[in-house]
């Protein structure tokens, strides 16, 4: 059991090695809301809607099968927590909006057609999940499939500690 925990921890640390710690980077993006509206905004501006709370950032791609398997976790998380999803290299805003409609995903989604937002977050593979705590610090990063419980735990941890 100890060996399995060590291997899991080692893989997790290797996968998240390039994700920055400290203050969340300032990201500017086009935001698609569940009603289809599009707004130019920044991560800091978006976070002002949720004062004193940690927020989740979920980086996904339309073409990623693991991301599709994880969609139900994010869908349930969005019902109770502020979540910004980032559609990495999934096309322009029209394409991302179409995917959101087709898959019935009620997510606030930043369009990252070039991968620049993901790169600023140190994300090299999808899906990725990060938490920005109430003070604007990046915490609780994971790469690969993350369970709903794992997502909720990371948000709880950022709120309590």
UniProtKB/TrEMBL annotation:
Residues 18-161 form the Thioredoxin domain. It holds the Pfam family Redoxin. InterPro entries: Redoxin, Thioredoxin-like_sf, Thioredoxin_domain, Thioredoxin_ResA/DsbE_sf. This is Alkyl hydroperoxide reductase. It comes from Hydrogenophaga crassostreae.
């Amino acid at each position: 059991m100890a060996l399995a925990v060590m291997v899991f921890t080692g893989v997790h640390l290797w996968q998240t090695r390039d994700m920055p710690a400290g203050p969340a980077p300032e990201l500017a993006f086009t935001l698609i809301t569940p009603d289809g509206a599009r707004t130019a905004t920044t991560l800091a501006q978006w976070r002002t809607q949720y004062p004193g709370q940690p927020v989740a950032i979920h980086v996904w791609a339309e073409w990623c099968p693991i991301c599709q398997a994880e969609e139900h976790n994010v869908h349930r998380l969005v019902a109770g927590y502020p979540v910004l999803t980032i559609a990495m290299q999934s096309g322009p805003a029209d394409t991302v909006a179409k995917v959101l409609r087709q898959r019935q995903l009620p997510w606030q989604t930043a369009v990252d057609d070039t991968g620049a937002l993901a790169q600023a977050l140190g994300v090299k593979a999808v899906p990725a999940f990060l938490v920005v705590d109430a003070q604007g610090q990046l915490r609780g990063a994971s790469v690969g499939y993350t369970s709903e419980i794992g997502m909720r735990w990371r948000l709880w941890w950022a709120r309590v500690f």
